[in-house]
Amino acid sequence: MAQYVVCSSHMKPSKVEGDFPDIAYTYISNDSHIGWHYAITPDREQAYIFDESEIEKAQLIASCWRMQLKELN
Question: Model pTM?
Fold first, then answer.
């Protein structure tokens, strides 16, 4: 059964001059009450995992927050 997360990514300037920028991710949190409110977390371990039965809800959340729906391997 496929599992998904809703996330976004953005670049942060590196703290060391001349290095590539760091990529930071933001996820919908597992302490969210999906359908009521959503919480955001930078920690992948605390991301809400959507299963196939919640795919439509995940797509709606991703479009509202301008985030991406990523399938987990």
Answer: 0.78
